[in-house]
Design brief:
- This protein is mostly beta strands.
- Helices cover 12% and strands 37% of the residues.
- β24 and β25 form a beta hairpin.
- The N and C termini lie far apart (102 Å).
């Protein structure tokens, strides 16, 4: 009996050893099907293949009539840039900046017109072999250079309806190229769009809705070296940083003969006024959103069609280029608040006109209703708010 038990025990032990051995073969990741340790049974990762550097020059070597505003850059594939020099005809090196990964180099200063620039330098491929950077290109000789002017200035404060206008001395043919060189940065972020006006001699940016009070705005027109079409190129860049002040809106209904001023949501003025004569389309005050353009302590008014010249009025605030102002006029006090007799302007008493004048910022909106005539894009340079948003957006060239 004792010997039998011993044999059974031996069989049991052998069974355990076999089970352990089979378990190790089926689950141990360090043992391959052939019994080789450390391969994991997976594919071996191949080392990267060493390649010579491939260079791309922009502009390409031999390029002619390059616009100075085009990108000027060297990039490398399968390698890194060791050094780059771009030299002008006088031997002066053009300033540039390499990328942190040494895969590209870009100029940081403008090129000149009608000049030849020469590339030199070296890149090293992943194969460890050097590749020379060389070649030359020539910038365009413009038929004409054209500068633009902005209607806003550094450090100034404007009203919530203020449009940004970049104006040129003649029409721009390549509007898309110019518009792509323009930018508006706002804090807080404000939705807006560019639109080409006045026979394509001016491009305006306005927000979809009035600016939020306190908005910080920076406009950049990087148009130097940019093609404007027909051989005309931008003369110089221009920029401005400004801010939007408090909200102030004039609201007036020509049938009620009153003018209210709403500041930051509260009515702060309510004056009797005489608007333009309703029965004469040439004298009626136009309905629509006007924008304050300028203000003058005194202003000389002339309208030969209606028989007067050089009539000086006090505290004149221009709200359109079609001749509409808000100003004082003692001679019409008898009609103010009762009937409309002016030639399109909003007549206040000199005292009330001074109160309003002192509160005004360029860019303040003046919202007029009740008239038989509507303000249109033909009524002056600041007609931006006569367009609904869909119509305005369609005037962009991009």
């Amino acid at each position: 009996m004792r010997n039998f038990a011993r044999r059974r025990a031996g069989i049991a032990v052998l069974g355990i050893v076999a089970a352990l051995t089979l378990g190790a073969c089926s689950s141990d990741p360090t043992v391959s099907a052939s019994g080789t340790a450390g391969t994991g049974g997976g594919p071996t990762k191949e080392a990267p293949v060493a390649k010579p550097a491939t260079l791309t020059l922009a502009p390409a070597a031999g390029a002619k009539d390059v616009a100075p505003g085009d990108p000027v850059k060297v990039t490398v594939a399968d390698g890194t840039i060791d050094s780059v020099t771009l030299t002008n005809p006088d031997g002066k090196q053009v300033q540039g900046q390499p990328a942190a990964d040494k895969k590209s180099w870009t100029t940081t200063e403008d090129l000149g017109y009608s000049k030849t620039y020469t590339w030199s330098g070296q890149a090293t491929g992943s194969d460890g072999k050097p590749v020379q950077i060389s070649g030359a290109f020539t910038t365009v000789k413009p038929r004409r250079q054209m500068a633009g002017s902005l209607n806003v200035g550094d450090g100034q404060t404007y009203g919530i309806a203020m449009p940004i206008a970049l104006t040129f001395p003649s029409a721009v043919k390549d509007k898309a190229s110019v518009e792509k060189a323009l930018s508006v940065e706002t804090t807080p972020k404000t939705e807006g769009s560019w639109a080409w006006l006045n026979g394509d001699t001016s491009v305006h940016w306005r927000p979809k809705e009035y600016f939020a009070p306190g908005t910080e705005v920076k406009v950049n027109a990087n148009i130097y070296g940019v093609s404007m079409g027909n051989g005309t190129f931008g003369r110089q860049d221009i920029s401005a940083s400004f801010k939007i002040g408090r909200s102030q809106i004039v609201k007036g209904n020509t049938t009620q003969h009153r003018m209210q001023v709403i500041r930051d949501g509260k009515q702060v003025m309510d004056f009797p006024v005489s608007y333009g004569l309703d029965s004469d389309p040439g004298r009626v005050t136009h309905s629509g959103v006007h924008v304050v353009m300028s203000k003058h302590a005194t202003y000389s008014m002339s309208n030969p069609r209606y028989g007067y010249t050089d009539v000086n009025v006090p505290w004149a605030v221009r709200i359109s280029n079609n001749g509409e102002f808000i100003h004082g006029l003692a001679g019409s006090i008898w009609a103010q608040g009762k009937k409309n007799i002016s030639h399109g302007c909003l007549n206040l008493s000199p005292a009330n006109a001074k109160i309003y004048y002192d509160s005004v910022l360029p860019g303040d909106p003046v919202e007029i209703t009740g008239s038989t005539q509507t303000l249109t894009s033909k009524d002056g340079d600041y007609s931006d708010w006569t367009y609904d948003w869909a119509s305005w957006s369609k005037l962009s060239a991009v």
